[in-house]
Amino acid sequence: MVEIVSEVKRIGEYVIIFTRVFDSGQMVTDADVAIVVEDVEERIFLPRSSTTHGFSVYTINEKNVIENLSGVYTLIFKSLFKKFKVTIFARVRDKTTKKVLLFENGRTREEKDPLDVIRTLKVFLGFNVNIDKIIYVDKRLEKLVNKNTRKAILQDLIKPRKKINSIEDVFVGIIDSMRYGSQEWVIEDPSVIKWLENLYKDNLGKETRIGGQAGIIANLIAILGGYPTVYSPVLSKEQAGLLHKNVFSLCPTRKPVTECADAKESKVNWVFEFNRTDELFNIRSNQNGRFIAGSQMEEYRPEWPDINNIDIDAIILAGLHLLKKKYRDGTTAEKIIKETIEWIDGAAKRDIPTHLELTCMEDEWLREKIVEILYHVDSVGMNKDELRQIAELDEEKIDLPDALSIIKYMKKIAKKFGLKRVHVHTLGYYINLYKDSGWASPEKIKKAMLFASDLAAAAAFSGSIEKMEDLEIADSISLSKTGLKEQEKLEKEIGMENGVARVGDYTIIFLPTKVVGHPKTTVGLGDTISGSMFVVECGYRYM
Length: 543
Ligand code: 8BR
Ligand code: GLC
Fold this sequence. Notes:
Blueprint: E1 2-11, E2 14-23, E3 26-27, E4 32-39, E5 45-50, E6 67-69, E7 72-78, E8 83-92, E9 95-104, E10 107-111, H1 114-120, E11 123-127, E12 130-136, H2 147-156, H3 167-180, E13 183-186, H4 190-204, E14 205-211, H5 213-223, E15 229-231, H6 237-241, E16 248-250, E17 254-256, E18 268-274, E19 279-280, E20 283-284, E21 289-294, E22 314-318, H7 333-349, E23 354-357, H8 364-370, E24 379-383, H9 384-391, H10 403-417, E25 421-425, E26 429-435, H11 442-462, H12 481-494, E27 500-503, E28 506-512, H13 525-540
Parallel strand pairs: 11-15, 11-22, 12-18, 13-21, 15-16, 22-23, 23-24, 24-25
Antiparallel strand pairs: 1-2, 2-3, 2-7, 4-5, 4-8, 6-7, 8-9, 9-10, 12-14, 16-17, 18-21, 19-20, 25-26, 26-28, 27-28
The structure holds 8-bromo-adenosine-5'-monophosphate and alpha-D-glucopyranose.
């Protein structure tokens, strides 16, 4: 890894920038170094200076050339700027690394970019880490049922049970999700699991990967160079094996995740992915999405680790939709949710920001219990369907045709639950809403949102992000037309400027995002977006 270590000094009217470059800890004495100095208030740039002509765009005069004094790259220039930004580029082995410093009142402070935050923030995630077995919906599925079953499926579609007790129910779930949006149902009859296992083996299964919001976000952070801590009540060797080696867990002390894997059985979800042109029994899907059939396990319920004993900067919670109403030992979902709330309140006492990532919750009873958590967390993340589910707890059938209607309900939710931050992602744009200041500045938030959009585009394109290079494709993906149109509308409707608007007591930040024409998969994209954005914003909160 290449690291840039810099120091900025002012002596009278001169500014001196000393830079050293390290490659895996070794000082590099022949790096190409270029520096751009920018006056923050006046927006004046000093032309870029560099050690070699090849790397430099231009230099103003001889005085502005960076001197390489045995590996200490030194730039001296005359400047009366009080506050300026220094961007240092170092090229080693044909790879360029960048560092940004802010100089103010005689002191320098580093401006972190989103990756720096991801790599340094101590993030805790709990509790759903499962295995996703992905099956793409195709016509071959139709051949698995006879005429009578087909009839029964079409009949059940009138009023789906939203639980899986038979093979028919799996089909009902897929078609209902194709029609009305992604859903997740639990499998109550174990014989269906056998059928799914065979189906997966019979050439229809495409991929096994880490699933569950906590697992997906933890993996992403680790791939990007961070060291997250994940808590999962069930962690088998197979689950742990699908996580990056830099993911840690608690057992009971913090250890690499494989050392904590002690469960015999894995939590497995079967994910049926479909796109907007797929058809089953002549019923056409009108959207990209998925239907998830999830195994149910008695042990899959959180027992949170002592909040006062973990060293963390940010918390992401998810998975409560998997709770059973009642467990064999008498424990109830209500009791677990109460304990979760107490745990969150403990985090609040330590001023650790908390985020709840929602997912579609079919069981209205459980949904009502889970939303109680919103009174306690700082932030919540969701897609449009999830926003609808929360809003419809108070109102009959709501309509979300555009960004303005989404903002209306985001505001309602923020107000009702006293949330500091609400994030909604849709296909084409993201909207974030904040109560008061005290979070990051709008510029920093936009940076976090842009970063999330790049990650989502890269993940949609390749199916998942596995290494840093996978991110490069994002540069060639264009912005959504829908997003740009909605942006224009909001500028007229609520006077939004540069993606920022004030609506009542709230600040809205809007970003049109990059959308991949033919995504490879979409499962987990929402987690990638919400998780990365929240973490980066937390890192920026005090900057
Ligand atoms: P959920 O996982 O919460 O449903 O969120 C999915 C999100 O993934 C969408 O809101 C959208 O922002 C993003 N997304 C989808 Br779906 N398809 C995408 C694509 N082709 N390119 C970029 N982002 C996409
Ligand atoms: C839910 C599902 C999980 C899936 C995830 C994707 O958490 O339970 O299987 O990976 O959503 O967002």
